[in-house]
Design goal:
Blueprint (H helix, E strand, L loop, with lengths): L2 E7 L2 E6 L2 E3 L3 E2 L6 E2 L52 H13 L6 H6 L24 E2 L5 E5 L4 E5 L6 E6 L3 E4 L13 E3 L5 E4 L5 E5 L4 E9 L2
Length: 226
């Protein structure tokens, strides 16, 4: 393609591309100009609305600035979001906690509330009361004196609320607290030594069986809640 030129003045020419003139676009204020190129693109300003259609399925946009200024007060927030307008309740609650702790729970104040080791006066002690079934008393009305033989027999049937039995054997004997037959040889039976009273945990509502190598006597006193 040939380029022709026409002299427009001293040292200047106007170029033609075949039958069409060739020129370069510039922009800038009066008396100044910048050539339009990749480093100085032509600025375009829109007024009113702008509608652009026919976008491709995907396209790439580059040359974004390194930072963007975004105003948080213009962002849409869900209902009840944590903004300054919704912090009143939380602030009031924190103020209430602070007012109820005159010392503000400083480290020294917190440590002062932790009891130290060693004996304390009754006025500064913590009272601990065990549950009624852990602090039982004798149920004398339901105590028995059982005759023990060489055959397993039922010595007592326990009340459903009974959890302990006081047992005193005159001679060595064996008992079971689950209702099964007691034995002098088989596993599962508990040896009660003569003259040595014991408090035995039991299952309420079951029977206590007993057997001995020779005839003897066994005293059993249930224990009940206070």
């Amino acid at each position: 393609m040939a380029y022709d030129s026409v002299v427009a003045g001293p040292g200047k020419a106007f170029a033609f591309d075949d039958d069409f003139p060739r020129s370069k676009m510039v922009f800038g204020p009066e008396g100044q100009h910048k050539h339009v190129d990749t480093d100085s693109p032509l600025p375009v300003a829109f007024s009113g609305g702008l509608t652009i259609g026919n976008f491709p399925a995907s396209f790439q946009v580059s040359n974004f600035p390194s930072t963007w200024a975004i105003a948080a007060n213009s962002l849409p927030l869900p209902t009840g979001a944590a903004t300054a307008a919704f912090q009143t309740t939380g602030n009031n609650s924190l103020a209430t906690i602070a007012n109820n702790t005159s010392d503000g729970l400083t480290t020294s104040a917190f440590q002062a509330r932790i009891p130290t080791l060693g004996p304390k006066a009754a006025s500064g002690s913590v009272s601990v009361t065990p549950s009624t079934d852990q602090d039982p008393v004798f149920d004398h009305a339901n105590a028995v004196v059982a005759s023990v033989t060489t055959s397993s027999t039922t010595a007592i049937t326990l009340a459903a609320s009974c959890k302990y039995v006081w047992a005193h054997a005159i001679g060595d004997c064996y008992i079971r607290t689950d209702g099964a037959a007691a034995s002098t040889t088989a596993a599962g039976s508990i040896l009660l030594l003569a003259g040595q009273p014991q408090i035995i945990p039991v299952l309420g509502g079951t029977t206590v069986t007993v057997v001995a190598g020779s005839a003897t006597t066994l005293r059993l006193t249930p224990m009940k809640a206070r």
